[in-house]
């Protein structure tokens, strides 16, 4: 996706430099040491107070991951999960989905990174982990072989939550990056990339 945007902006590969920035650091107010960040950021009003977002490039739902064979893996709806130890990354929309939608009986565990949250699930420190569904499929298929997708949040989330690129507040590049994303949507590139790189959310049951 990042390379597609860069190409659309007219830059060559040798003109691009990639850097690593912590998820929460990218969302803090103030100057950035990057032009735009491609980490899977959900566009939200609160975040717009500190940073700019490009046009959205992917509609996303939240998903629940649990260890295969566990009680949490048997959940059929969100209410079934309320009594379990749940976790998500600090500052993420996944964490907000736990507190606002599942409304657990105990406060969810917060983790600095998704890697920390995955480790906690593997160690049995939490019963289930909430992440966006592309990340959920990647974790269960490639990183935690003993884990499964319990299901995804109800369908409204898939159309009200979107990924967008993050830029410094009032960045002169925001309009350019948004125009590139819009062009990639119009010519079908976004749909092609999603089909190629992101597992279809239809593969996960909906937790009503």
Automatic annotation (TrEMBL):
Keywords: Signal. Gene3D superfamilies: Periplasmic binding protein-like II. The keyword DNA-binding does not apply. CDD domains: PBP2_peptides_like. Pfam families: SBP_bac_3. The keyword Signal applies. Residues 1-201 form the Solute-binding protein family 3/N-terminal domain. InterPro entries: Solute-binding_3/MltF_N. It comes from the Bacteria. This is Amino acid ABC transporter substrate-binding protein.
């Amino acid at each position: 996706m990042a390379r597609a945007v860069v190409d659309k902006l007219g830059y060559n590969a040798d003109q691009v430099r990639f850097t690593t920035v912590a998820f929460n650091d990218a969302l803090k107010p103030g100057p950035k040491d990057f032009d735009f960040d491609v980490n899977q950021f959900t566009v939200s009003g609160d975040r717009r107070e500190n940073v700019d977002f490009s046009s959205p490039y992917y509609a996303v739902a939240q998903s629940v991951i649990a260890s295969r064979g566990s009680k949490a893996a048997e959940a059929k709806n969100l209410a079934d999960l309320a009594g379990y130890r749940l976790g998500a990354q600090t500052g993420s929309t996944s964490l907000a989905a736990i507190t606002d939608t599942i409304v657990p009986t105990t406060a969810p565990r917060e983790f600095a990174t998704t890697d920390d949250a995955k480790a906690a699930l593997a160690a049995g420190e939490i019963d289930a982990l909430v992440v966006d569904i592309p990340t959920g499929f990647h974790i269960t298929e490639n990183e935690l072989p003993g884990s499964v997708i319990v299901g995804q949040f109800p369908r409204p989330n898939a159309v009200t939550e979107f990924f967008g690129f993050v830029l410094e507040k009032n960045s002169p590049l925001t309009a350019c990056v948004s125009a590139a994303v819009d062009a990639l949507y119009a010519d079908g590139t976004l749909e092609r990339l999603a089909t190629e790189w992101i597992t279809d959310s239809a593969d996960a049951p909906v937790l009503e």
